[in-house]
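ESCALATION

Customer reports they have been waiting on this structure for their group meeting. Please prioritize. Original submission:
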Amino acid sequence: MNPQLQGVEQIAGTYIFDIETSNKALRLNRFFWHMIKPEARERFVADETEAMQAAGLNDTEQSLVRARDWLGLVRYGANFFVLEKFARVVKMSNMQVYAIMRGETFEAFLATRQVPDAR
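Update from on-call: job pushed to the front of the queue and completed.
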């Protein structure tokens, strides 16, 4: 184990994104990265299953995407920055995703912010 990560498992809510994780989730992260292209977004919106299969996503990855399991995707190895691209494709804001990751309603999450009326 990388000495810089020693003891990280004791920090609740910490999910390591290292080379091993990156390699494991490479197809998934590339799939999300391609959402910068209009044609990739259009393809996904038109037929999610076909788009995921064309990208070579395995059953686990497809299930996580279908469920919009944001925290599950992070645990699996999705890079948060590409998840932000995907969130916009499925018409969700970053703050909505954060609320889901925390297991809160959007309204409850906003109440914890210094600007609770922000959307």
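Sent to customer with the following note: The first helix runs from residue 19 to 24.
Escalation resolved.
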